């Protein structure tokens, strides 16, 4: 949506992107940032976000197709680099909580990538 702000000064993930809050970075390019979740559920747990502030999947429009597609395509490579074992024995989980009923706590669109050998802390 064209009225979505590119950065929100009150958003914790925008602060991670700008470096105002430290992140354990996994990956960065012009449009995408990935970092380790501060409260991991599993041996591998990182978050993939667009650098641009999009509150959730509920605000996604045609202008976001490119960045979302690239995030999805990047996930398997980063998952393997971070220690997820190969498919099919290994693999990983991708989760995108959206809104209150979806369990979203941070309102900057993010995809959880969760994996590594079980047992996991959660999930
Ligand atoms: P969600 O419930 O999908 O909105 O998940 C938000 C996730 O962000 C949670 O798994 C948190 O542990 C994670 N998180 C919150 N603050 C930070 C931070 N400063 N650095 C890394 N991960 C964070
Ligand atoms: Zn943000």
Helix-strand layout with pairing:
Layout: H1 12-18, E1 25-28, E2 32-36, E3 44-50, H2 65-82, E4 92-95, E5 111-115
Antiparallel strand pairs: 1-2, 2-3, 3-5, 4-5
Bound molecules: adenosine monophosphate and zinc ion.
The site of zinc ion (ZN) has 6 residues, from helix 1.
What does the main sheet amount to?
5 strands, antiparallel
Q: Using the coordinates shown, work out and report the CATH topology.
A: HIT family, subunit A
> Total number of β-strand segments?
5
Order of helices and strands: HEEEHEE
Report how far apart the termini are: 33 Å
Would you state the CATH class?
Answer: Alpha Beta
Radius of gyration: 14 Å
Distinct small-molecule ligands in the complex: adenosine monophosphate, zinc ion
The percent of residues in helical segments reads 10-25%
Strand arrangement within the widest β-sheet reads: 1-2-3-5-4
Structural class: alpha+beta
List the total number of helices. 2
Low-confidence stretches: none
Count of domains? 1
> What is the general shape?
globular
CATH architecture: 2-Layer Sandwich
């Amino acid at each position: 949506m064209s009225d979505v702000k590119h950065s929100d000064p009150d958003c914790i993930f925008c602060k991670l992107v700008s470096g105002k809050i430290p992140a354990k970075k996994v990956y960065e390019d012009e449009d995408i940032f990935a970092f380790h979740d501060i409260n991991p559920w599993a041996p591998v747990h990182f978050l993939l976000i667009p650098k641009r502030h999009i509150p959730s999947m509920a605000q996604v429009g045609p202008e976001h197709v490119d960045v979302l597609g690239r995030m999805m395509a990047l996930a398997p490579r980063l998952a393997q680099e971070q220690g997820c074992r190969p498919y099919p024995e290994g693999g990983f989980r991708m989760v995108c909580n959206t809104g209150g009923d979806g369990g979203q706590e941070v309102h900057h669109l993010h995809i959880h990538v969760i994996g590594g050998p079980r047992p996991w802390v959660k999930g």
